[in-house]
């Protein structure tokens, strides 16, 4: 067996610089967050990139943190659910999920909210999806939200409420953007 | 703080409720669509589930599992694996479980990992300093087997036919012969998996002889008894914490491998041990819903009045399991008909343990009965809604007992109206380009239950209250509704009530299961609050019935007094206990609904796209309109999975669960779930419990799949009698 080696890496997690000495290169980004940094808001649902519960934002893009090794992220900026808001200071999507009951057991919820955060940015940037009518300027239809959120499974099936929550936030943001 | 002054209020449901407390209170929070009080923790990632908040020094255990379906483990390379980096222990303790405990078992399930009954059964626990080391080492375990030929599938196997589960009334064969219209069809539904998003996990630690386990469980009082029995220790030495449970659906009713393994390991090592099941282990080694084969016979006269109803089911389970999917549970009382047959047969197979999954019985039995009713409606030339209305019995036709309440006709009529059922065309008559459009419907019915439940409510001197019970919230909304019940009964704003759940040291509740949680734990909380009301009334010198509590004040005899003044520094405690009684036996209790679906089926590919689902339910008092609706949306989506995507596939050679991950076992994803509407009819059921509330979360998945299947038939003319309706079952039969 190879002897354990040290792999010091630096991550900026929710704005805080964290240096991690990983004695094991097999540690996934998900397990590094949950077990090494104590950020258990990011959930492990399948550990295989199939459910989306572990979604975090790395350098502005949403990824499944279970499918990525921590050592691959030296120097990266990572946002987890803990970095979006806190009880009493909820981010707009967190408040909308609460109000629209966009969750039940709550286990997939951090992943859903992280995914929705990045998804709205992708849409603003004009990225099309398989359900887009106009590939150059996709509109925020309900099906567009459903398709773009289909990588985040929810067995409680809060889906209709998740769509409503995301739509509420997107609609609230739209006029402000127009005004700007 | 002065010692609490306690009053107990214990109630057995021997008579229908005549008090109806929650209709005479004034706070106005009961039934309101309020946000979940624990919601801010969940949406910010601060709610801590089982495998979180590890105590210092926690090490990691991973289960090694069998690769054969039947036989004995006669050796293992434990010495080799113990020598691997970081490995602390390899545990082959005879107390490790074969199967998780069944719901409400309160005793150990089948144990001993040395005898193998199914592929994927745990054979040992490997513990290491880190998860990575434990996982690697567990994969290196190589058991030596003395293998036996397994019973891979139920096909062609002899069955047990338990006498208590058979019933015959009149002469169904004669009724079939004499019928103007008759249906004799066989349907199959596949095995299914709960697939809760949080994998089963347990973190065990010992303090002397006292064991604490953070776990993901639904029924703590039963789980304590099961875990203690499995370990051979006293239940008083076991504490289970399940404050947040990442979904259950029946898959976490009983203790499972992880809790027992973690407890044994933690004892041996003197360190806290986390055992978080890998997703594949959850699929293969926890529970499944049994596959079913169902023969339905229906006979009716020329007017569509049923003269005969036959429903026989064949299911499977492992040897030694008493549970078998109660497929026909609602059939004895759903529709009229004087000649009846109920049959139940169980095959013993070497597959993953079968257990309760959301609405055991009705979730698969009702859709099939409803498909058969659709077939009969077509044969008789009667509208499917009308056929059902003509056959609603005035009393339970199998026992002669009255219904506590039967709202099926109301649901059918209101649902049909809201959905626009009148626009439905005859089979195969509507097409939009490539798409064949159809509408279908089904009745929804599920038995209603009450289980013994205890709770404490404490009214503190500052006028705030605390609710305490070991009830769990698996996403159903327990935190919300229990807070609402206490707030309503005590006349307090929601933010002055705190609800503490999921700790087995608290008063024992029913737990979450069978849709009885809200009614049972809720009634206990209401009774506890009522005991406090009684104490307050005594202090004010009035009857409890004359007392109005609102916004932290008591109103009695035209005088308003702040609660803090009534309390005068005292702390009042109420202990509530509800028990099922005679109303469980004297009347037939059920919840009712009607489900309507519209589908589009591609005439080219056979792809089914669900366009909309609409359901109307009558299930007693709604305790929180928001969380109740969410329960129904989730239940209906469960039905979408049963109709269109979900299916456990077993290898016919060794029975192993082939599609044991979330990429291959297809629970509905967001885009699979269309617009859904949920309507609750105003309803009260005094026989159910003192709140007159009933179960919700399971009812919503009873019938849904039938409505979708019937819509597919209406669109295409194809009867799929083998759930789910995947493309391959439609493609070569499309018009």
SSE topology string of chain A = EEHEEEHHHHH
Any idea of the CATH class of the largest domain in chain B?
Alpha Beta
The CATH topology label of the largest domain in chain A is DNA polymerase, domain 1
> Span from first to last CA of chain A?
59 Å
* Major β-sheet annotation of chain A: 5 strands, mixed
* CATH fold annotation of the largest domain in chain B: Aldehyde Oxidoreductase, domain 4
How would you sum up the global shape of chain A?
A: globular
Radius of gyration of chain A: 17 Å
How many strands of chain A?
5
Question: Sheet with the most strands of chain B?
Answer: 7 strands, mixed
Tell me which CATH architecture of the largest domain in chain A applies here: Orthogonal Bundle
Please, how many domains of chain B? 3
Instruction: Give the tally of β-strands of chain B.
Output: 29
Helix content of chain B: 10-25%
Radius of gyration of chain B: 27 Å
CATH superfamily of the largest domain in chain A: [2Fe-2S]-binding domain
Please explain how this structure is put together.
The complex is a heterodimer of chains A (180) and B (735). Chain A has helices at 29-36, 81-84, 92-99, 109-124, 142-148, 159-179, and strands at residues 7-13, 16-22, 55-58, 61-64, 77-79. With 180 residues, chain A is an alpha+beta fold. Chain A has two domains: 7-83, Roll (Ubiquitin-like (UB roll)), CATH 3.10.20.30; 85-179, [2Fe-2S]-binding domain (DNA polymerase, domain 1, Orthogonal Bundle), CATH 1.10.150. In chain A, a hairpin with a 2-residue loop joins strand 3 (55-58) and strand 4. In chain A, helix 3 (92-99) crosses helix 6 (159-179). The radius of gyration of chain A is 17 Å and the shape is globular. The mean pLDDT of chain A is 93. Chain B has 735 residues and is of the alpha+beta class. In chain B, 24% of the residues lie in helices and 25% in strands. Chain B has a seven-stranded mixed sheet with strand order 4-6-2-14-11-12-13, with helices on both faces. In chain B, strands 8, 9, 10, 15, 16 and 17 form a six-stranded mixed sheet that branches. Chain B has a five-stranded mixed sheet with strand order 1-26-20-21-22. In chain B, helix 9 runs parallel beside helix 17, helix 12 (478-490) runs parallel beside helix 13 (517-540) and helix 16 crosses helix 17 (704-716). The model of chain B has no long low-confidence stretch (mean pLDDT 97). Classes of the chains: A alpha+beta (180), B alpha+beta (735).
């Amino acid at each position: 067996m190879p002897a354990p080696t040290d792999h010091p890496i630096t991550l900026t997690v929710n704005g805080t610089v964290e240096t991690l000495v990983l004695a094991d290169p097999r540690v996934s980004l998900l397990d590094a967050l949950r077990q090494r940094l104590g950020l258990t808001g990011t959930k492990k649902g399948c550990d295989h990139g199939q459910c989306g519960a572990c979604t975090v934002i790395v350098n502005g893009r949403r990824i499944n943190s279970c499918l990525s090794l921590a050592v691959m992220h030296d120097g990266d900026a990572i946002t987890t659910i803990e970095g979006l808001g806190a009880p009493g200071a909820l981010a707009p999507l967190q408040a909308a999920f609460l109000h629209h009951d966009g969750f039940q057991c709550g286990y997939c919820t951090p992943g859903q909210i992280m995914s929705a955060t990045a998804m709205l940015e992708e849409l603003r940037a004009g990225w099309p999806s398989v359900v887009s009518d106009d590939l150059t300027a996709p509109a925020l239809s309900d099906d567009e939200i459903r398709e773009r959120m289909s990588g985040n499974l929810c067995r409680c099936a809060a889906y209709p409420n998740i769509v409503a929550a995301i739509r509420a936030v997107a609609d609230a943001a739209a006029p402000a953007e127009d005004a700007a | 703080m002065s010692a609490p002054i306690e009053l107990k209020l214990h109630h057995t449901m021997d008579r229908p409720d005549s008090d109806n407390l929650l209709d005479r209170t004034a706070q106005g929070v009961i039934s309101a669509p309020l946000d979940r009080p624990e919601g801010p923790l969940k949406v910010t990632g601060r709610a801590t589930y089982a495998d979180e908040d590890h105590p210092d020094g926690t090490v990691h255990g991973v289960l090694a599992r069998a690769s054969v379906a039947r036989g004995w483990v006669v050796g293992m390379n434990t010495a080799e694996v113990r020598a691997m980096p970081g490995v602390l222990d390899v545990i082959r303790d005879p107390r490790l479980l074969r199967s998780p405990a069944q719901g409400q078992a309160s005793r150990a399930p089948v144990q001993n990992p040395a005898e193998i009954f199914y592929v994927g059964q745990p054979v040992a626990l490997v513990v290491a300093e880190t998860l990575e080391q434990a996982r690697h080492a567990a994969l290196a375990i190589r058991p030596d087997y003395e293998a036996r030929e397994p019973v891979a599938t139920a096909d062609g196997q002899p069955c047990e036919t338990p006498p208590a589960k058979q019933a015959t009334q009149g002469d169904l064969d004669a009724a079939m012969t004499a019928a103007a219209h008759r249906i004799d069809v066989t349907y199959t539904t596949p095995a299914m998996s709960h697939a809760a998003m949080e994998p089963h996990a347990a973190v065990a630690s010992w303090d002397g002889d006292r064991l604490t386990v953070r776990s993901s469980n639904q029924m703590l009082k039963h789980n304590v008894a099961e875990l203690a029995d499995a370990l051979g220790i006293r239940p008083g030495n076991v504490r289970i914490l399940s404050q947040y449970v990442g979904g259950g659906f029946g898959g976490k009713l009983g203790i499972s491998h992880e809790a027992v393994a973690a407890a044994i390991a933690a004892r041996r090592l003197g360190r806290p041990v986390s055992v978080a099941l890998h997703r594949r282990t959850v699929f293969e080694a926890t529970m499944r819903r049994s596959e079913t084969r169902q023969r339905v016979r229906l006979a009716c006269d020329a007017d569509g009045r049923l003269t005969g109803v036959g429903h026989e089911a064949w299911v499977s389970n492992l040897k030694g399991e008493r549970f078998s999917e109660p497929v026909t549970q609602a059939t004895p009382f759903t529709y009229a008909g004087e000649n009846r047959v109920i049959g139940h047969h169980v095959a013993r197979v070497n597959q993953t343990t079968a257990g309760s999954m959301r609405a055991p019985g009705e979730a698969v039995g009702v859709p099939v009965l409803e498909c058969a009713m659709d077939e009969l409606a077509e044969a008789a030339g009667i509208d499917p809604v009308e056929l059902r209305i003509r056959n609603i019995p005035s009393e339970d036709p199998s026992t002669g007992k009255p219904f506590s309440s039967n709202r099926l006709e109301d649901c059918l009529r209101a649902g049909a109206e809201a959905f626009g059922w009148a626009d439905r065309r005859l089979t195969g008559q509507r097409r939009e380009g490539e798409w064949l459009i159809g509408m279908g419907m089904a009745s929804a019915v599920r038995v209603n239950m009450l289980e013994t439940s205890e709770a404490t409510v404490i009214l503190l001197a500052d006028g705030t209250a605390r609710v305490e019970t070991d009830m769990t919230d698996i996403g159903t909304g327990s935190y919300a509704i229990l807070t609402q019940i206490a707030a309503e009964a005590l006349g307090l704003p929601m933010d002055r009530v705190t609800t503490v759940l999921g700790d087995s040291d608290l008063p024992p509740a029913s737990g979450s299961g069978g849709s009885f949680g809200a009614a049972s734990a809720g009634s206990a909380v209401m009774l506890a609050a009522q005991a406090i009301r009684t104490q307050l009334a005594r202090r004010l010198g009035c009857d409890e019935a004359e007392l109005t509590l609102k916004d932290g004040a008591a109103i009695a005899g035209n005088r308003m007094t702040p609660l803090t003044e009534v309390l005068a520094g005292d702390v009042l405690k109420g202990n509530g206990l509800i028990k099922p009684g005679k109303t469980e036996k004297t009347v037939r209790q059920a919840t009712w609904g009607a489900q309507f679906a519209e589908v589009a089926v591609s005439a080219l590919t056979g792809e089914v796209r669900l366009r909309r689902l609409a359901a109307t339910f009558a299930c007693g008092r709604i305790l929180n309109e928001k969380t109740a609706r969410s329960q129904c949306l989730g239940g209906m989506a469960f039905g979408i999975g049963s109709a269109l995507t979900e299916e456990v596939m077993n290898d016919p050679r060794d029975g192993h669960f082939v599609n044991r991950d979330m990429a291959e076992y297809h629970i509905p994803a967001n885009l699979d779930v269309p617009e859904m509407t949920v309507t609750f009819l105003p309803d009260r059921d005094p026989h159910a419990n003192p709140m007159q509330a009933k179960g919700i979360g399971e009812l919503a998945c009873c019938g849904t799949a039938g409505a979708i299947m019937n819509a597919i038939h209406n669109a295409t003319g194809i009867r799929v009698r083998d759930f789910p309706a995947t493309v391959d079952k439609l493609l070569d039969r499309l018009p």
